[in-house]
Write a structure and sequence with these properties.
Order of helices and strands: EEEHHEHEEHEHEHEHEHEEEEEEHHE
Shape: globular
Number of domains: 3
Structural class: alpha/beta
Distance between the termini: 54 Å
Number of helices: 10
Helix content: 25-40%
Radius of gyration: 21 Å
Number of strands: 17
Length: 330
């Protein structure tokens, strides 16, 4: 439990946790988990954040030996209690029981992980682990989904949530050439929006994110944006193509079977077919010459964001001021 944990009116009642405080320049408030004296063999964690954040907390919860995850709403975060049924079965399939928090003792408040700051190159999973003072291994699957939906065998599972979209991802071309092999998972309104923008593909109804997980596990390929289904694909190390948002890099997990597309340049091979997409060209706009290539966009800010994403994916740091100085009209 961190010093800032449960900063609302409810007080933490944990009496069985021992901490060894330590100072680090990147996070003066960081505490290192040493040991927990278990009460009735249970370890309780709390979260009030987004569903994707909860999924990315699974490696840390496993490292801490968490047995119960309690959730509740806080004034400064999106309500989560009314969405428990969306992720309850998924988290419980990983051996962690999910409940609404009433007045239970809490050992670890995972929702405060943003207080630990962000290091360039961080993922959400790494930030949570660092804040809790544990080591996790993301080089191998950190979620186990034994059930596979036979309906997605030989298919591409597609997902696109309402947030974290890319500017240049070639959805129309992919749907045009691979649409017959695609099935969409997500909310009905997300499917409707997708089809209206990029073309019709089949919809696969799911009751919750566990059903989404079995669909992804049974498929041959996942294509989607930085959303909860993408978090699941990361967890089980499913081969993926990710619509990369130019402004949020904390879902860039370095896996050999994942392709990140931020600039529209993409090659996808599936079932003997190859789909190739190039960066969309405009007659007038802004450009940045960097790393032996020219990045173009109609809007200056998007051009700078595109270059920043390009740097990030190459694991090279350029700040916004440096990239702004390289931007020029054409």
């Amino acid at each position: 439990m961190h010093p800032e944990s449960f900063s609302d009116s409810r007080k933490m009642k944990t009496q069985y946790t021992i901490f060894n405080k330590r100072q680090e320049s990147c996070d003066k408030n960081r505490v290192e988990f040493v040991t927990v004296l278990f009460n009735n063999n249970s370890v309780n964690a709390f979260h009030s954040g987004c569903i994707g954040d909860i999924i990315y907390s699974i490696p840390t919860m496993k490292a801490l030996g968490v047995t119960n995850l309690y959730v509740d709403d806080r004034p400064w975060t999106k309500p989560i209690v009314n969405r428990i049924d969306a992720f309850k079965r998924l988290i419980e399939s990983q051996g962690i029981e999910v409940k609404k928090h009433e007045d239970e003792n809490i050992d670890f408040d995972l929702s405060t992980y943003r207080n630990g700051g962000m290091i360039y190159g961080d993922t959400i999973a790494n930030r949570v682990a660092r804040w809790m003072g544990v080591k996790i291994d993301l080089s191998k699957p950190w979620m186990q989904i034994d059930e596979k939906n036979p309906a997605t065998k030989g298919k591409i599972v597609v997902s696109r949530g309402a947030r974290w979209h890319g500017e240049f991802f070639p959805w129309k071309k992919l749907v045009s050439e691979l649409g017959e092999n695609m099935v969409f998972v997500g909310l009905p309104e997300e499917h409707q929006d997708f089809c209206s923008l990029f073309g019709n593909i089949e919809y696969l109804p799911t009751n919750d994110l566990y059903d989404v997980a079995t669909a992804i596990a049974g498929s041959d390929l996942f294509i989607g944006n930085q959303s909860s289904p993408n978090a699941i694909a990361n967890g089980i190390h499913k081969e993926s193509v990710v619509e990369t948002c130019l402004y949020a890099f904390d879902c860039i997990y370095d896996r050999p079977n994942t392709t990140f597309c931020h600039d529209g340049i993409l090659k996808v091979r599936f079932d003997g077919m190859t789909v190739i997409s190039d960066n969309p060209s405009t007659k007038h706009g802004w450009k940045i010459d960097i790393f032996g290539r020219t990045l173009k966009a109609q809007d200056k800010h998007i051009c700078i964001a595109l270059a920043r994403a390009d740097c990030f994916l190459r694991k090279i740091y350029y700040n916004v001021d440096q990239l702004t100085g390289l931007a020029e009209k054409y």
